[in-house]
Amino acid sequence: MNRSFYITYALYKGECILTNILRNIINSSDANMRGDEIVGSFIGVRVSKDHRLFRGILRISYKELKLLKNFLMKLRRSGVSYKIIHRGKGSIVIIFNHNKACNYCPLIHLSGNAVPKTCFLTSLGLLFELISEDKISLDEELFHILFSDVAEKVMDYMLTPREQEILYYAYFRGYYDQPRKIHLTQLAEELNISKSALNEILRSAERKIVTAYMRHDMPHLVIEKILGKINIYKSS
Questions:
Q1: Which secondary structure element, helix H or strand E, spans residue 152, and what is its range?
Q2: Residue 206 and residue 111 share a domain
Q3: Inter-residue contact 118 to 110 (CB < 8 Å)
Q4: Residues 33 and 117 reside in one and the same domain
């Protein structure tokens, strides 16, 4: 039996030039914004040996195009150079450089037993998604833990063992080939389950996979869910 692991979301309390830009955009907006309207997720970062130059790749998703334009304009004005390397529906990927790398930035210097899965750039601050074997404790002067729970409760797009088994079998039998090498009826016979049961399992697995992809491609969907969980935890 697989042992579960923990997912923790922790907000970094320190300063960050990029989060300050987002915070300024949200605070100066006329609309009543929650903080998930424009969000970034870091794909990769590095810093020069002298810690003077910070370079990274950032995926930015947004609900309104004007928020993105405002963010990119303020990046330039803050001395952060960037280049758009990919455009998607409601998101872009940029590679950026700036010479204000912080010696305390947890993107570079995060320590402890937890492994960072993702770091989100939000108007609330840098938000870390951490993986650990057990519940973790972080330096309270540097981090505020929003919530922490077993992965099955947080990552609701994880496939069950049965879904994995069926999905793998269907894939390698050519069910997802174009054209298909095997159809649902034959697949159900080979797996010795009803056609309707097989269809339900595959649809559940496919929905979870699409959900995981959308949250990866549009990080504001993740933050929207996190904000919802924070409200749930506060009311419990």
A1: helix 151-154
A2: no
A3: no
A4: yes
